[in-house]
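Annex B. Sample input.
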Amino acid sequence: MAAERGARRLLSTSSFWLCCLLLLGRPAPAAAARSGSPPQSPGSSVRTFTPFYFLVEPVDTLSVRGSSVILNCSAYSEPSPKIEWKKDGTFLNLVSDDRRQLLSDGSLFISSVVHSKHNKPDEGYYQCVATVESLGTIVSRTAKLTVAGLPRFASQPEPSSVYAGNSAILNCEVNVDLVPFVRWEQNRQPLLLDDRVIKLPSGTLVISNATEEDGGLYRCIVESGGPPKYSDEAELKVLPDPEFTSNLVFLKQPSSLVRVIGQSAVLPCVASGLPTPTIRWMKNEEALDTESSEKLVLLAGGSLEISDVTEDDAGTYFCIADNGNETIEAQAEFTVQAQPEFLKQPTNIYAHESMDIVFECEVTGKPTPTVKWVKNGDMVIPSDYFKIVKEHDLQVLGLVKSDEGFYQCIAENDVGNAQAGAQLIILEHDVAIPTLPPTSLTSATTDHLAPATAGPLPSAPRDVVASLVSTRFIKLTWRTPASDPHGDNLTYSVFYTKEGIARERVENTSRPGEMQVTIQNLMPATVYIFRVMAQNKHGSGESSAPLRVETQPEVQLPGPAPNIRAYAASPTSITVTWETPLSGNGEIQNYKLYYMEKGTDKEQDIDVSSHSHTINGLKKYTEYSFRVVAYNKHGPGVSTQDVAVRTLSDVPSAAPQNLSLEVRNSKSIVIHWQPPPPATQNGQITGYKIRYRKASRKSDVTEILVTGTQLSHLIEGLDRGTEYNFRVAALTVNGTGPATDWLSAETFESDLDETRVPEVPSSLHVRPLVTSIVVSWTPPENQNIVVRGYAIGYGIGSPHAQTIKVDYKQRYYTIENLDPSSHYVITLKAFNNVGEGIPLYESAVTRPHTDTSEVDLFVINAPYTPVPDPTPMMPPVGVQASILSHDTIRITWADNSLPKHQKITDSRYYTVRWKTNIPANTKYKNANATTLSYLVTGLKANTLYEFSVMVTKGRRSSTWSMTAHGTTFEFVPTSPPKDVTVVSKEGKPRTIIVNWQPPSEANGKITGYIIYYSTDVNAEIHDWVIEPVVGNRLTHQIQELTLDTPYYFKIQARNSKGMGPMSEAVQFRTPKADSSDKMPNDQASGSTGKGSRLPDLGSDYKPPMSGSNSPHGSPTSPLDSSMLLVIIVSVGVVTIVVVVVIAVFCTRRTTSHQKKKRAACKSVNGSHKYKGNSKDVKPPDLWIHHERLELKPIDKSPDPNPIMTDTPIPRNSQDITPVDNSMDSNIHQRRNSYRGHESEDSMSTLAGRRGMRPKMMMPFDSQPPQQSVRNTPSTDTMPASSSQTCCTDHQDPEGATSSSYLASSQEEDSGQSLPTAHVRPSHPLKSFAVPAVPPPGPPTYDPALPSTPLLSQQALNHHIHSVKTASIGTLGRSRPPMPVVVPSAPDVQETTRMLEDSESSYEPDELTKEMAHLEGLMKDLNAITTA
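Annex B, continued. Sample output.
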């Protein structure tokens, strides 16, 4: 706001209209008004509101004697306002005052505060007054100047002793104003305060966990400007810890406390005893977590500090001290107050004389603020024309010119005060009131002024008469003016005033042409003067002659009876007294006493002839209101104000409700209950009395008293296998009410096992009816596992549509509201607190509508089978969950057994239960309600809950209703990320990897993390280095750290609602030296697999080339590059020669029969869905980015073939990408989707970090024919001699692709290392093979996926254990990258054997074309080698 106001001061007069536009819409904290150059309208002008408000207002100040004080005040206006000061409502004369002076900005300076016991001239309430001549006056809020009094000790430290490890307190209580000036000394030396030794707000010193060093002489000192004031010295002795125990006592208990929103509060609580006690806190029966809360802090000794107090912090706080032997508790009420705040501020108003206006002012605060109004600095006194309406608003009736000015609404309560104001401008009658905006004037308002046009005005209305005169109202009628006999478009204004009063009010007719009006709220027997004016489109006409009318006198009725009082005489009677009315207006004949129960609208009355009466037969501990009306011969007089009083409390008249017993184990039972109905409690319930006995010994009764509002109790120490009877009675201060009926429960013979889920029920039977199915079952055979109940699931075709849970004693259930002739699947599971057991399944088909045959119910004759209730309760319906906040959901439902208006008139109650399914073994929570809704609080944020409701009436209960679900809103994370670990990246000592787990209380979807790190753990958090992590990643690398340096790391999670708490600092020291040169397996910074390690190559592995171990992705030396290129070229040349030899040999073995087979195969291929054209064949593009290749063998080989060589081909973590660049992005998205032949689910995160990469396997001659791997723009594949093999290969490319991965885990485990080749998508390995001659038949592949076969494959008649390959063209579909094996030249013997087994060959024309391609390939290879 200060910046906004400062900007306003910079506005020049030339831009005044912009200033007005900005200021008029602003809800100024002080009185604000506007004025300036008026816009002109024909013959009239509109004044604008003037900016006039406080920039700074004085605030409450605490001072000491002799010090100087400044009370700040500054106001803005044009011209500059005159500033004056009031003290306690009286203006200060600052001209002749030598101690107090006015500063240039308007602030008040007091040079030396004077304060003594009998002279306090400076202490009091100050108010700043700003005045602008000819404009008005505004006043600031009042500020209290408090001067700390003379030091006086309310209590002083006393000698005491404390056992080592216990807590001690030393009192030094002074008045509140002097607490900030109190300090302590030990042995005449200043005492340093820390987490163990603290000073309470009262000045008391608390020492916790006392040690020998704490012994000594203590005193407190008050230094408040004058000479210091010392308390008495007291010795504190620290005694050694004895071996005996001592009683637990409070040294300091919490007391009722009041604080203002935003302040801090300390609830003291210090206890002593042996063993040393621990302190915990509860608020309104809810345990407080002081360890993880930033708002709540447990101070030394056990005191509770609440920072930044809000209204939600108010309540009853319990301090509980426990030392293992005993527990004591103390409680205190904490009240939170709030300063007045404006919900609605007054706004500027334009008006005409005689109009009525209302300044609106809505405020809030705690306690509720009182409102008073000020006009131009003077208090507005309510009168007939200035009224306070709606408690806060100011109504001004019959405006006159002198009512112009500034009006301020001042709100005040015990905490403070605030003011806001507005300006009233009264316009001339010929100036229309601006309509847009309603409380301000802008440059566009001129269009809305509706100036009167030139033309004749109407004459005076004729024959104005009072057609009806009463005591409180008068009805006037008249005729149209003579100038306008029809008068259809005329409106009229009636002006009236009391005789002798200059202030005139106005009442307008409601529509044009109306010629009557009723003036209300007049005074009896009073003379009023009336006149009427007509208006047309040109303006207001002449006024009628004044009409003098006197209202009728009122009947002489009695006034209100004074001094009415009411007091409770007993729990059922109240006595009311009063006196004779001061204005009886004749003899009082009798009185009528009216009374009504609070919260009802039915008022009863009694005729009374005396001045007192006692009403009997009232409800106990119930509030009633009373009023009295006196009667004389004219009738009833004025009623008194209502007085309220409550009847006295009594013992409860009804027993507690809903008593239930829960057998926990063989020695304990939990008893639950609900309070008696509210109408029967007859007072504040102070506790409950529990009585229990063995069923066999009814005379031996044990009694337990439960204090407070506790509604359950655990009774332990019972005998095994014994039946007990229980009953509960409620207590008030008057005594004990009636007890419930005896309720019995039997402890278990032995403790059942609840560490595991129940076993499967031993049987399940279903009997279908038309619209229902009767389900019956028997419990699990293993009776040693606790069964809490059974879950029945059912649905058409699936048992998961609906789920119903029943009690563990129940053995059958009827599923209602089913569809006839439908197949239902039913499942039954037993459950306990650990979870649900194994389900048992059954199915049944409901009968058709036409089947009216009776079906006998099959009920298992098992123990605990309940007798069915002939009239079961209907479960509630329409259960709905309405989410209100991150921890609150409202549950509503309907009860079809109630009347249509859904009003509960009997003693039924509802039980609401809820739970979340995460974790699965979450217990249900229950609560009872007597209305059709319930507010469930204390839920977890962003959590899905399920709710169901049942109704109970007497001993009858319904089943649980259908479940409703609701997910609470998100909330900021309330716990930090977990398991933060820092490790050094292998081979990169300057790089570390931070790992963590999500926070346990994320309260929403985690959208990112912030990593803070620093070398100084004690540095301010804004000095730490920040590393943001977007998304839900749980690991992050930080690079370029300093060697041999300790770093500290913290992590903070965030979601859509904000940031969560930080984790604890984790320390990590970077290594001393950079050892990257000693770690050849380290990945270069450009690698995509950051932090990954190579697969274990085994102890027998030898590098294939000296110096070729450089990291992939980094440039190699020229020598390494040359050697790598020579190897690649050599392998290619040898492969080509072998292929040529095979092709020549096979050509000679071609037979006509084989040609027919190949023709048939081609015809089959021609019908395949992948089609192309031989014209699409393009010459191979033989460029190889050898710097992008990496030579490493894979871990295992699927085939221990001796002709496989260990020639390493570099690999990369990226997928193989076809030449078609349009597919690059898709490949990138799937780049790590395949790890060997294993599924993605089997790959761990660690395996991913160890550099598990997809493998591309290239086939060699000895393998069976498969689809060739392609990556150059050629579309055709080599034909095979066997039509069966050929057709099999091409019939289903999807199947071929899926079969191209490694066959099985046995194949992988039984081989030796195979060389693999990995190619980056951005630099594909093109034409790393012999180009194939296109077959004469129709091509088999889509030209959209250009490719060239690496090697032509020969079909073998017998199966060979082999590695399968697939076309890279299939990468365009959703397939992971496939392995490709790089072949090496086979030896002569193996080649000869392979050629003998081969049955396919080339035609001479095909061989000629192929040789042409080979010559081009050799030229390209020679060019590469030369370069």
